[in-house]
Request: fold
Amino acid sequence: MQVTEISSEGLRREFSVVVPKDDIDRRMNSRLAEVGATANVPGFRPGKVPLPVMKQRYGSAVRGEILEQTIQETIQRALDEKKLRPAMEPKIDLVTFEDGVDLEYKLTVEVVPEIAPIDFSSMELEKLTVEIPDEDVEQSIERLAEQQKTFTVEDARAAAVGDQVVMNFVGKIDGETFDGGSADGMELELGSGRFIPGFEDQLVGAKAGEQKEVNVTFPSDYQAENLRSKVAVFNVQINEVRTSTAVIIDDDFAITMGADNIEALKATVREQMGNEYLQLSRGRLKRVLLDQLADKADFDVPPGMLDDEFASIWKQFEEAKEKDQLDDDDKGKSDEELRERYREIAVRRIRLGLMLSEIGRTNDLTVNQDDINRAIAEQAQRFPGQEAMVMKYYQENPQAMQELQAPILEEKIIDYILELATVTERMVSTEELLADPEESSKADPGGKAKKSKKAKKARKAKKKAAKDKGK
Reply:
């Protein structure tokens, strides 16, 4: 096999690959012999069919098979010979593949750029922590109790805010009914805000058996575009008025929620809230980490990867535009401005992806079967009562199982960086943790930051190893 570089521009390489005809003939004859061992050809016993006859009957089919097999094998050999790491699937252009001549094709490949090592110990990051106030736990339990409250029919009662009405209604716009504008036996708690503004207010004071005419205007940003800003009239029949009975928050309530007593329920709720806040905190920490990595990235990206990533982003943008769901930042901007912005986003995504991949590769970070099993178990826990079905789904769908690996590996890489970086912790309020990061960055830092002991120990343990690996 002969591999000749014919073009080198940026990260794109083009090669002429020539496979001698003798090699192709050897592959053809070997494969034809395998086929001939079981082929039923009139006048010949299996395994005794002459090669010329086999070529005449099966040559075309076998040549296609040999072509695909040879190209796949020689592509990898060519990449290994030239010590290239492709960034994406190479492109093949067939030049010649005929009887009696060499196989020749053009191989076009975009390679992974050189990525400079990063000293992770020089990175400084801040982790937000929250001490959950007792009142937050109590409010969460109150919301649980609110969801468990019951309603009782009360005859002759005038509906008030907090009551539940059972109703039939028919809505019309310009005298015509519309999809989704009618229902029978609908239950609605007044004051819940489930219906469009003004609807629930006009039912306050209504009694069972009464007919009410409700006049409303659909919001300008209503989900159904055909109803936006439209004036509608609803004819409402009140069937029942029900009053609510509050749930008493005590040990009995806790037992209905699966806890031994109210203190155990509080502990469970606090733990759940703590886990949610931990995830939020990690998400913000990860965002800052990725921002710092992006700032350190100063390398070209493979043009084919950029084109594919931009096309994916732009498709999402056009779908959002068609549904009138554009972000406020995108409204009023020209396509040229938006294309430039989204191309920058595509570059950032690719650079981060390549950097994380390189960090994982050079530090031998991989996903093992135990990692995958844990991820599948976590997915199964999200569907109580259907765990077996979830497990079976992943066992029978290799592609779905493969899709689990990328986020697992990414989290492993993030953990590796965090163990080497300087991570400080800062106590904040739940409001600051839940606030938009850009807004919270303007707030008074407050609190006393402290070095993460885990990060400090990890740096001492891993710093030398990381440097030995080029980090």
Remarks:
- Residues 315 and 321 are 10 Å apart (CA to CA).
- Residues 150-245 form a domain with the Chitinase A; domain 3 fold (CATH 3.10.50.40).
